[in-house]
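Page 37, top half.
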Amino acid sequence: MKSITVFCGSSFGSDEIYKEQATLLGQTLAKQNIQLVYGGAITGLMGAVADGALNAGGKVIGVLPHFLQSKEIAHKQLTELILVETMHERKTKMNELCDGVIVLPGGYGTLEEFFEMITWAQLGLHKKPIAVLNTDGFYDDLIKLVQTMVDKGFLKQVNRDMLLISDNIDELLEKMRNYEAPTVGKWISKEEV
């Protein structure tokens, strides 16, 4: 893996551990010579993961829609900042630039980005690992909900198993390196999206 997209909150949350783990993730990616791709802001966990990578000598690409430049406040020290028009263009560009995705704590936007990436994987539009850094059990209830989707017949176990989860950064990266996408038939082609 040469490049990983990280989706996370534009705020810090209520516990210092979220910022600490975001910073550590950025540092770890830089030390392993993995480029960070993220939402381009200097605020919250987004800024923490970028600063962690930059301060450790890593390369960081931010992708930010024009209309969020003033709200999320673009990071000025990035290796590269790519400005796009829409949120969908943002996700598409971030997907194009990465070999895998890690999700940190966040709100609605983070969940929306996460679910779109895992849905694209489920549909066979990419074969990249999608991973959740479950810091301090932040995503425990979501993980239970995903299992309920399987138990109630709305999600196949093979698609549940696509989701890589750990509360340890090194373990999560190892799972991502060893990930093999399921061999399921594609429902649609990229051209049909």
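Page 37, bottom half:
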Amino acid sequence: MKLLLTDSGVRNESMREALVDLLGKPIAEADALCIPTAGYGGPYGDPGGPWRFISGRSPSPMTGLGWRSVGVLELTALPGIDRERWVSWVREADALLVNGGDALYLCHWMRESGLADLFPSLRDTVYVGLSAGSMALTTRVGEFFVGWEPPDGGDSALGVVDFSLFPHLDHPDCPENTMAAAERWAAGIEGPAYAIDAQTAIKVTDGGGVEVVSEGSWRLFDPVG
């Protein structure tokens, strides 16, 4: 997969250009599936968040970017659907738009549904994550972000990329997400980690290249750098 890991959606022209580059065509010619699942998880999950995400009424621009078509892929429903059917939906999509919410809840259902098993084969698919939707692909979320607790415990994510993410840096709605808090969080990650704000995304190409796309603030914590 090609990845655009955002804090809170595609919020500026630099990120939009990065998305178009990953797609290899205009957004208006691309078909997307949105995944609202993370919005139900954790202590603050409610039905309003997933609805706003799906309908494009969220303040985080994702489904309302002008796609040719948008469908919904709810991961908790997939175990009850014929696998060949939903796998074909995923393979036909140009992009997966993955909602925020609780990262470990999302990881759990990506594994349980079988979607995570498909990731290595989705070479041309663009994965666009929003907050928890981005964190789910990293190595660890860190204790700071543990809300919903997985059955086997821990804070391990899917490890599609070899770094971790601290989103919502210095966001007014998240006063605890300071740079000082990010430094303490990164010290417990024991691996490369990025703190990013709403105007920043991490672009990962299918060749493994990592690029920070930002019109805001960010920081890389690298224990071996």
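Margin note: The longest strand covers residues 2-6.
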